[in-house]
Amino acid sequence: MSDPVFLITGASSGIGAATARLASAAGYRVVLAARSTDKLAEIATELGGEERALALPCDVTEWEQQQAMVQTTLERYGRLDVAFANAGFGASRGFLNETPEFWRSMVLTNVYGAALTIRAAFTALKEARGHLLLTGSVAGRRALPGSLYSCTKWAVTAMGEAARQELEGTGVRVTLIEPGAVDTPFFDSRGSGRLDAEDIARTVMFAVSQPAHVDVNEILVRPTRQP
Predict the structure, then answer these.
(1) I need a labelling partner for 200 at 20 to 30 A (CA). Which of 9, 136, 168, 216 fits?
(2) Which residues carry out catalysis?
(3) pTM of the model as a whole
């Protein structure tokens, strides 16, 4: 099959799941990666089963699992056109809040995990002249009081630009997606005035649907009501 392949980490819910649905509707075969395998399997079945959607367990902080994720993608689908490093989670603000262990897990997932996704997909994306996307945040453009999460997203902002510079001339495009407040499992409760995950998924698809000579490097998307 020649249909392009779209890999998404953190695909079991929120922005990742919404992006998988829109990518599938646009004709991509999708590879869904996350630690929550039950949800992944449900989404993969919804999107057409293994011929169109592949569910792969992956802890993005483990290099061997990221390697296996990309290798399985290439073995099953023969190519990798888009890699979306989307896995991540937040923490309460305040340098005396959360445990050091929680901090460590967040930093490893948000920063190290994103870097490992780039590393794992790097060669395949170059071969496909594909597209690398990373989930940043408005918090990665301005520091938030006491927010280590904000610090991790500043790192992702720099990572996107560092990857873009290294990939310059290869045909691979790099896009940093920077959501504002989105009504996803990131928050403990639903709130009014937030974006839906589908709003960010449409932003992702806007970036990947541009002509090959157009590289949308950064997209900041906030709710109208967010100050």
Answers:
(1) 168
(2) 149
(3) 0.92
